[in-house]
């Protein structure tokens, strides 16, 4: 190994989450060197200080404390995870300021929302929620993050639409939005170019063709209906007639060409703008498992499992095309003979997406509860300062709060100022 | 390169170091997304997979720079080699990759090869490039389109060749600096370092 340089970060590079704003290298070194022996007391103290600051702050910019706390957490816990409590923290911060429009267009608050969305399983829902609630609708960063999420999911068209929406709302800074939009267009056009180039390599003119010699997959659950694949002029004739079949008929997706997005045309076509959902109530709890609608029992059939168990494992990938580097000094480990046929091993199955309770849903429920409270429907009323005790990422007890106020008072009195504020919460 | 595997001469050393810069620059340009990833192709060198640009203009430019650099390395007149990444629109310097080069000038008089096998040197180079790749873990995301520039610090009395021009150091103010590994051919020693804009957090 070559000498020089602090190599701590390199040894644990896989455990460092990259940050958009980069990392403070000294904080990183500190965090990594303290990693072995759990949370150091300095970190715990700092966290406690932030927690009590959250509760005791009485200036006119409470978001600032949250912002600093979250930034500190990001830098101090490079690998993220449960210990950092970042997700909870973001959720609390975001929920804390939903009512009242004070921060809705504050770049810091929007930034927190975007971080929160990135931690959600469904970021797009969160962005839509933000739009509906009017959070950050004039901030370019919302549209950029939103569009990037669409692009990551491979939907460049929607990514573009998001920018159009941003332009319509005159999001600021306008330059930034324009620049990211241009970059998106450049990326998309490059992709299209590459595809076109690849297409040109095989000279056959690609026209829509009917699938021949392919299996016809049936549609519909009760009645088997063969899909209708039509090509060229015959497609149009369908739409004229009366359609009695419920299933969608245009099934040409398999051999359609890539559609180049033309923004001018869609503008003429008109109603392409995203519909605003009201989000007043949380969506129906489709997330719950094992909930069945009432139906006639005599018709129900238990789905049969296939012959070979649940799922068919993918075949092992072919040998890599590159040569993995092996140190010369390395000895090949002696191979133990593998007796288990990987094809029948069902121990490792893909994790089913857990949709029980997403952060966004909790947020909506919170929102809902508040509305109910306003309209006087809420039956409970807590007779202690519940908000203060639970407001941070950690829970405080009443005595802690009381002590905090007491110490504050003591220091103030030491400073020569008599303060008559009562210490009881 | 030297015919024997055991020793290294000044010429061989200059060639090795120049080669390192060629691969190093390509790696940085790829890792930092200065050029679109589709314009790079994979090659295997130093027993690792590296990305090389396929853009003809860039390739040509880099070949020119590296061959000039090789000459200077051979004359032992280079002190520093710097790759600067600037924002295309504001011209603000965002990142600065600095390679300090220490030349052992006595190698010019004594032509006997030094004892250090190419393999050990390449091992060292490999770990430098690996570390360059690993820096993405802490470097800030470059969100704007960027350009890059190459600076060479030479001894004072050197003639500036055509197509090169004098330039300022292009230092980032308020920067965070991270030293990376170094390697030595026993004639040239290269210390690497990256500087980037400090985050404004406390």
UniProtKB/TrEMBL annotation, chain A:
- GO CC entries: nucleus
What PROSITE patterns would the database entry show? Answer: BUB1_N
Q: Which InterPro entries match?
A: Bub1/Mad3, Mad3/Bub1_I
Question: What is the protein's name according to its record?
Answer: BUB1 N-terminal domain-containing protein
Domain spans labelled BUB1 N-terminal? 50-211
Q: Name one GO biological process term.
A: meiotic sister chromatid cohesion, centromeric
**What organism, scientifically named, is this protein from?**
Zoarces viviparus (Viviparous eelpout)
Which GO-annotated molecular functions does the record name?
Answer: protein kinase activity
Gene3D superfamilies (UniProt xref): 1.25.40.430
The biased composition feature labelled Basic and acidic residues covers 286-297
> Pfam families, from UniProt?
Mad3_BUB1_I
Positions of region (Disordered): 269-297
UniProtKB/TrEMBL annotation, chain B:
The Gene Ontology biological process terms listed for this entry are: cell division; mitotic spindle assembly checkpoint signaling
Record's keyword annotation contains Cell division: yes
Q: Which domain of life is it from?
A: Eukaryota
InterPro entries for this protein: HORMA_dom (IPR003511), HORMA_dom_sf (IPR036570), Mad2-like (IPR045091)
A Pfam short name? HORMA
The record places domain HORMA at: 11-194
Cite the entry's keywords alphabetically. Answer: Cell cycle, Cell division, Mitosis, Nucleus
Q: Which PROSITE patterns does the entry mention?
A: HORMA
* Location, primary (coarse class): nucleus
Q: Name one GO cellular component term.
A: nucleoplasm
Q: Where is this gene product found?
A: Nucleus
PANTHER family this protein is in? MITOTIC SPINDLE ASSEMBLY CHECKPOINT PROTEIN MAD2, MITOTIC SPINDLE ASSEMBLY CHECKPOINT PROTEIN MAD2A
What family does the Swiss-Prot or TrEMBL record give for this protein? Answer: Belongs to the MAD2 family.
This protein is called Mitotic spindle assembly checkpoint protein MAD2A
Q: Could you tell me which species this protein originates from?
A: Zoarces viviparus
């Amino acid at each position: 190994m070559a000498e020089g340089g602090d190599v701590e970060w390199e040894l644990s590079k896989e455990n460092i989450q990259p940050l958009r704003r980069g990392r403070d290298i000294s904080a990183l070194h500190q965090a990594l060197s303290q990693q072995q022996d759990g949370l150091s007391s300095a970190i715990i103290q700092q966290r406690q200080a932030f927690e009590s600051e959250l509760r005791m702050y009485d200036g006119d910019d409470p978001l600032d404390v949250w912002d600093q706390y979250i930034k500190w957490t990001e830098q101090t816990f490079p690998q993220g995870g449960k210990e950092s409590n970042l997700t909870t923290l973001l959720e609390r911060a975001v929920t804390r300021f939903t009512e009242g429009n004070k921060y809705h267009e504050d770049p810091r608050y929007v930034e927190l929302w975007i971080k929160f969305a990135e931690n959600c399983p469904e970021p797009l829902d969160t962005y839509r929620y933000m739009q509906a609630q009017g959070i950050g609708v004039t901030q370019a960063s919302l549209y950029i993050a939103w569009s990037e999420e669409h692009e990551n999911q491979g939907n460049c068209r929607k990514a573009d639409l998001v920018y159009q929406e941003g332009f319509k709302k005159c999001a600021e800074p306008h330059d930034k939005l324009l620049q990211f939009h241009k970059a998106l267009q450049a990326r998309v056009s490059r992709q299209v170019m590459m595809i076109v180039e690849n297409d040109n390599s095989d000279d056959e003119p690609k026209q829509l063709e009917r699938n021949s010699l392919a299996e016809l997959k049936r549609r519909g659950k009760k009645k088997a209906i063969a899909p209708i694949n039509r090509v060229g002029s015959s497609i149009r004739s369908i739409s004229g007639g009366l359609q009695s079949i419920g299933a969608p008929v245009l099934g040409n997706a398999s051999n359609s060409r890539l559609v180049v997005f033309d923004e001018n045309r869609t503008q003429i076509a008109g109603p392409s703008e995203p519909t605003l959902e009201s989000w007043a109530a949380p969506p129906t709890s489709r997330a719950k498992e094992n909930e069945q609608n009432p139906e006639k029992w005599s018709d129900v059939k238990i789905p049969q499992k296939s012959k070979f168990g649940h799922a068919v494992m993918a075949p092992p990938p072919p040998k890599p095309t590159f040569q993995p580097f092996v140190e010369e000094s390395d000895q090949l480990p002696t191979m133990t003979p593998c007796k288990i046929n990987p094809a029948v091993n069902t121990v490792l199955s893909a994790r089913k997406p857990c949709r029980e309770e997403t952060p966004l849903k909790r947020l909506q429920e919170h929102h809902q509860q508040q509305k109910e409270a306003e309209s006087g429907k809420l039956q409970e009323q807590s007779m202690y300062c519940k908000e203060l005790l639970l407001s941070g990422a950690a829970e405080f007890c009443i005595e802690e709060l009381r002590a905090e106020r007491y110490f504050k008072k003591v220091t103030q009195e030491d400073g020569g100022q008599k303060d008559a504020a009562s210490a009881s919460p | 390169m030297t015919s024997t595997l055991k020793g290294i001469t000044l010429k061989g050393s200059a060639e090795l170091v120049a080669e390192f810069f060629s691969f190093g620059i390509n790696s940085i340009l790829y890792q930092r997304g200065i050029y679109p990833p589709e314009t790079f192709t994979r090659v295997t060198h130093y027993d690792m997979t590296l990305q090389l640009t396929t853009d003809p203009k860039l390739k040509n430019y880099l070949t020119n720079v590296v061959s000039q650099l090789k000459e200077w390395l051979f004359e032992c007149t280079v002190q520093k080699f710097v790759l600067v990444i600037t924002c295309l629109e504001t011209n603000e310097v965002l990142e600065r990759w600095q390679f300090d080069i220490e030349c052992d000038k006595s190698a010019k008089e004594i032509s006997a090869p030094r004892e250090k096998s190419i393999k050990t040197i390449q091992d060292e180079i490999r770990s430098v490039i690996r570390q360059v790749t690993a820096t993405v873990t802490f470097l800030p995301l470059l969100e704007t389109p960027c350009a890059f520039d190459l600076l060479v610090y030479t001894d004072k009395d050197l003639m500036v060749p055509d197509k090169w021009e004098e330039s300022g150091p292009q230092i980032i103010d308020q920067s965070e600096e991270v030293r990376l590994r170094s390697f030595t051919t026993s004639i040239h020693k290269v210390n690497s370092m990256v500087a980037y804009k400090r985050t404004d957090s406390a």
